[in-house]
Design a protein that fits this description.
The structure holds two protein chains of two kinds.
Chain A lengths: L1 H11 L3 H24 L6 H35 L6 H27 L4 H5 L3 H23 L3 H20 L3 H7 L3 H23 L31 H10 L4 H29 L1 H10 L2 H35 L4 H33 L7 H7 L1 H12 L7 H20 L6 H30 L10 E4 L4 E3 L1
Antiparallel strand pairs in A: 1-2
Helix pairs in contact in A: 1-4, 2-3, 3-6, 3-17, 4-6, 6-7, 6-9, 7-9, 7-11, 8-9, 10-13, 11-12, 11-13, 11-14, 13-14, 13-16, 13-17, 16-17, 16-18
Chain B lengths: L2 E12 L2 E12 L3 E6 L5 H8 L7 E6 L2 E2 L5 H4 L2 E4 L11 H11 L5 H11 L12 H13 L5 E5 L7 H16 L4 E6 L2 H7 L2 E6 L2 E7 H7 L1 E7 L12 E7 L2 E6 L5 H10 L1 E7 L2 H8 L2
Parallel strand pairs in B: 3-8, 3-9, 6-7, 7-8
Antiparallel strand pairs in B: 1-2, 1-4, 4-5, 9-10, 11-13, 11-14, 12-13
Helix pairs in contact in B: 4-5
The chains are: A mainly alpha, B alpha/beta.
Chain lengths: 478, 291
């Protein structure tokens, strides 16, 4: 039993600042939920709204941090823990214990946030349904990450599994299981899939041979979709093309953008289909949820914009790393190298943002949402935030990258929630926010550009290692 | 002899970690200089700071008389660099990679490339991701030689090569060095490679230079002394630059640097002992310097 607790502790272990962040998050989250409930719906006080919104931003961030840490640990554990006695079994049991805890925590929060809200409680068939849905979704996502590491492939497979669950729920209603668990058919199908996933994982994990020094280097994470990776080729026709090729590792900007944003676009298209299918089966509850929560209208836009930010950030970082060979081989000064990279980054931005945000616009049109400004949600707010992210990648911040990224994401989330909550303010304030927030973000991007250009004069290529392949959510080192 | 690369009081820290400490050195044209050190000694960082890829925390460095961080185009065109971890593009073939770098360079010696590709047996029509580690390293080296640089900087260039390929590669380095105007600066932890080609050596230990100079001088001045005295020996002999000493009664074994043959007679008289001087190989010297 102590081994189980050790593994669970390892699972959630973190640096002091992350522990402090999570503790503060928890307190703020409970406080915001209570205040939100006490104030009733809709929120009518700016202070109450601010605390609730702050809690929600941090909840999202904390969730991301915990999931990222968990994925990292679970993805690396199969390699490392094979050297420990009963290491695999401990981790497996730790995961089995940690996931229900996490799902229960999520369920309690959800119940707190929607205390007394009968229609919301009916979503996913109440708390029990919420618990099983969360448990199933977490299980599927984590298992995929363990099997194939955190990459665009895992996200793609996750979306495919969700669609499969929906299809299963339509073909086989799973009446017995849904009655037993007192949940919807879709949740029952998801849960069944998660159980199958656990069974496959357990079989693979426990059967894997104990690693030895001899075969240590040969051990590889399986990449199930590696055959689908796009193959780039093409002759170099001009010096400009050679520079672009050297920086991107691809002959064309569109090729690189497709490689980066392609999986994200596919995932979001599938998610839109899944939500549409659910909406058709349970229109009253979904309509209520869409109206109460900014799930599709704002939150989905936020996720889309975050995806573009992340993709653009990684593309630029990869370019920055590769630019040292261009600098030493080419006739460019550092300032000229910066200008070249910036020009290509803007082209990438146009293609990636165009692709991903277009999917967001499709979602906006097809799915029920709160009334709002389509252009503001898909262009005016995300674009300046993406530009901020792009210039952050140029800033050569090296090992201080997480410290820089967290405030950037907080700012991004703040901008979105301000836009989402415009209805809580007077029309004049709301109109002012619609202009002021994007303008401030754009001014921030301009400042970051100036800093990046200055820092580039003394760029430290030692801390920005060149990357070989650019993936949607991951980059692979040489 | 012109100074090609110089460093003055160079230090480099990343965060709280000090990687290079107060390094001063000069590399003159026509020399093959090997930077020798254990893994993590700071060899790669030293090369990257010297070439301007990374700014120093303090001190300065120059290449062809220009500040490393502000290298003008005419200086960069005279440098060839082979990184420790290659920066080739996986998805293209070797021929495409050669054409890519060739189109970025101001000059390109196609005949030299053809000769080296044939000699090192590199399959140019294979995608780079399908090449072996050794083939990738050889291709990286060829890319750095294509524009016939006057300064060739190689970071652990032979670490992935088999013994035959290493010999071929080192022979090519010697050919390049035979040209008086060329200078080769390379890092390695393989002592035999360094002994085979370098005429000067810089030994880096924990971020600072433990010894720098002619390879032959190093071998002549770092020696092992076997002392056989009539009486029990004292704990200290009053000999400067002792790297390591073991005293057991009237016998002692001492490894010392800065040795000169004249010191032998003086020490024999002072200790009333017979001393035999053993010349050491580079590998033994390297081990003793790190002991």
């Amino acid at each position: 039993m102590s081994g189980v607790f050790q593994a669970t502790r390892l699972f959630y272990s973190a640096g002091w600042w992350r522990r402090a962040f999570l503790t503060a998050t928890l307190l703020l989250m409970i406080l915001s939920a209570l205040i939100e409930h006490a104030a009733g719906h809709p929120l009518n006080s700016f202070t109450v709204w601010l605390i609730a919104a702050a809690g929600q931003w941090i909840v999202t961030l904390a969730g991301l941090l915990v999931m990222a840490g968990s994925i990292f640990r679970t993805a690396s554990a199969p390699q490392a823990l094979r050297l420990l006695p009963f290491g695999r079994l401990r981790l497996l049991l730790g995961l089995l214990l940690a996931l229900p805890l996490f799902a229960a925590f999520d369920t309690v929060l959800s119940a707190l946030q929607h205390l007394g809200d009968a229609t919301a409680a009916a979503g996913w068939a109440g708390e029990v349904g919420w618990f099983f849905k969360t448990l199933a979704l977490e299980s599927l996502f984590l298992l995929l990450c363990v099997l194939i590491a955190a990459s665009q492939t895992s996200l793609l497979l996750f979306a495919i599994l969700l669609a499969l669950a929906m299809a299963l729920a339509i073909v086989f209603p799973f009446r017995a299981l849904s009655a037993l668990l007192a949940v919807w058919h879709e949740t029952a199908a998801l849960f069944l899939l998660a159980l199958c996933g656990w069974a496959v994982f357990a079989a693979w994990y426990l059967r894997a041979p104990r690693i030895s020094v001899l075969n240590w280097r040969e051990e590889q994470q399986p990449d199930l979709l590696h055959h689908f990776q796009r193959r780039g080729s093409g002759a170099v026709s001009s010096r400009a093309a050679a520079i672009r090729y050297q920086l991107l590792g691809e002959p064309s900007v569109i090729g690189a953008a497709l490689r980066i944003a392609g999986p994200i676009v596919v995932v979001y298209m599938m998610l839109i289909i899944v939500v549409l299918a659910l909406y058709r089966r349970h229109p009253e509850i979904w309509s209520h949820m869409m109206r109460q929560w900014p799930v599709v209208s704002i939150y989905a836009q936020l996720i889309l914009a975050s995806s573009v930010c992340g993709s653009e950030f990684r593309a630029v970082r990869a370019m920055v790393g590769r630019s040292r060979i261009l600098w030493i081989c080419g006739a460019q000064t550092r300032a000229e190298s910066f200008a070249l990279c910036e020009r290509i980054a803007w082209s990438c931005f146009a293609v990636i943002a165009g692709l991903v945000l277009a999917v967001g616009a499709v979602g906006w049109m097809l799915l029920p949402h709160r009334p709002g400004n389509w252009a503001a949600a898909t262009i005016v707010f995300p674009v300046p935030a993406i530009l901020c992210c792009m210039y952050l990648a140029f800033m050569n911040v090296g090992d201080r990258l997480p410290v820089v990224l967290i405030p950037a994401y907080v700012f991004l989330y703040a901008a979105f929630y301000l836009e989402a909550s415009a209805s809580h303010f007077s029309p004049a304030v709301a109109a002012l926010l619609q202009i002021a927030v994007p303008a401030a973000t754009l001014a921030g991007a301009a400042c970051l550009r100036r800093i990046a250009a200055r820092r580039w004069q003394n760029i430290d290529w030692l801390t920005v290692k060149p990357e070989i392949a650019i993936g949607g959510l991951s980059t692979r080192r040489a | 002899m012109n100074t090609v690369v110089s460093a003055a009081n160079l230090s480099k820290s990343i965060g709280a970690k000090s990687i290079l400490r107060d390094i001063s050195m000069e590399v003159t044209s026509g020399h093959v200089v090997g930077i020798l050190g254990k893994n993590g000694a700071g060899k790669t960082t030293l090369l990257e700071v010297l070439l301007g890829f990374s700014p120093p925390t303090s001190g300065s460095s120059s290449v062809f008389g220009n500040d490393s961080l502000r290298l003008p185009v005419h200086s960069k065109q005279r440098i060839g660099f082979v990184p420790q971890r290659d920066e080739l593009i996986n998805e293209i073939t070797g021929a495409q990679q050669l054409s890519l770098i060739g189109s970025l360079s101001h000059r390109w010696n196609g005949a030299l490339i053809e000769r080296l590709v044939a000699s090192w047996e590199i399959p140019l029509n294979t995608r780079i991701k399908d090449l072996s580690g050794g083939e990738r390293q050889k291709l990286s080296t060829i890319l750095a030689l294509g524009h016939e640089p006057q300064l060739l900087v190689l970071d652990e260039p032979a670490s992935s090569l088999d013994p035959i390929a290493r010999r071929l590669f080192l022979r090519e380095i010697l050919d390049i060095a035979a040209d008086e105007a060329r200078t080769v600066l390379f890092s390695t932890h393989i002592v035999s490679d360094l002994e085979r080609v370098a005429n000067r050596v810089v030994i880096v230990r924990e971020g600072h230079i433990a010894w720098a100079g002619e390879l032959d001088t190093l071998k002549e001045t770092v020696v092992r002394l076997h002392v056989d005295a009539r009486h029990a020996l004292p704990a200290a002999f009053g000999l400067d630059h002792v790297i390591r000493q073991q005293v057991a009664g009237a016998r002692a074994s001492i490894v010392a640097s800065h040795w000169h043959p004249n010191l032998k007679e003086e020490l024999e008289q002072r200790l009333d002992a017979q001393i035999s001087v053993e010349q050491m190989g580079l590998e033994d010297i390297f081990v003793e310097l790190h002991s």
